[in-house]
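Box 3.1 A note on notation
Throughout this textbook, protein chains are presented in two layers. The first layer is the amino acid sequence; the second is a C-alpha cell string describing backbone geometry. Keep the layers aligned when reading.
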Amino acid sequence: MNILVTGGAGYIGAITNRLLAENGHRATVFDNLSTGHAQAVGEAELIRGDLTHPDEINAVFGSHQIDAVVHFAALALAPESMEKPYEYYRNNIAGGINLLEAMRKAGCKTLVFSSSCAVYGTPETLPVAEDAPIHPESVYASTKRTFEEILVWYDRIYGVRSVSLRYFNAAGAALDGSLGEDHSPETHIIPVALAVAQGKLAEFPLYGNDYPTPDGTCIRDYIHVVDLAEAHIKAIDYMQKQHRSDVFNLGVGHGYSNNEILSTAEKITGKKLAKKYVARRPGDPAMIYADNLKARTILGWQPVHSDLETIIGSAWQWENIKSGNR
C-alpha cells in the first residue's frame, strides 16, 4: 500500500515509517520538521509541509495516490499545552481537520490516529480499559479526545474509517539503536535518566516520593516504541479486512515505578544516578496502566519487546550512537 505518514520524521513516526517499508509498504512522510529530523526518514520520500496550511496537504493528495494515512503530526507536551492552548488546538485540531478534508476529497478512507491514554485523565479503576470514563486534564489531552470525536463523525458521514491508538508511555529505541528519541527540550524519564548517566545532567529530578505506591513514586505503563509501530501496521490490516473503525489501548498491562526505572538505568549503564526529590507535578496520577486485552484479541497484537531492560538497553544504545560513543 501507499501510506502517508504525517509526522514521520519524529520519534514514533520515523520508526513506524521504517517498519512500514520492511513490511512491503511504500511510505511518504509529511512533516514540518519543527520537532522531527529529516535524517530520521531514511529512504522514504520526505515532503516538508504543515497541516495547518490546507494547500500543502491537498497538494500531496493531488500528486500521490495514497491508500492510507498514519497520523502522528501534533504538538505533544501536556504542560506546554496549558500555556499555549491556541497553538495546540490550531495544530492538533485544525491541522487534523485539514488532513481529513484532503483525504475526503481524494477518496482516501483509511486512517490510523496517534492518540493517548491522557484522554482518561486520572483513572477511577485500574487497569484502564477502552470503556473507562473519558476525562482529559490538559489541553493536549483535550485535543486528542476532540479529534477522536471528529473521526467518529467523518466515519458516519463520509465513510472514512479510523483506528485510534491510545498510547501509554512510549519508550525505548530501534532495536539496533539507530533511531530513538531526540527531543529538545527532553522531558521523558528514560532519556533524562540516561542524560544523567552520560554526565549531560548533574542529577535526575524525581517528582514526588509520597505517592500511595510501594516505593512512593509514580507508576506508569511503558511500551517499547517498536511494539507501538507494529500496532499501526496491524491497525491498517484490521481496517482493510473488517472495514470498520475502532479504538485500542496500547500498553503492556502493568506498570513500573520511577524508582524502578532509575534502578534499571543504573544497571544497564553501570552508572550511579544522582537524583533529587522535588515537589509533585500538578495532575500526575499515582498510577496508570493499560488493559490491553482488546488490542491483543482483536488486532492480534502482542508487546514483545517491552520488558524494562530491552526498553532501556535500546535507548542507551541509541543515546551512545547519537553522542558518537559507539
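The two ends are 36 Å apart (CA to CA). Residues 85-106 form the longest helix (22 residues).
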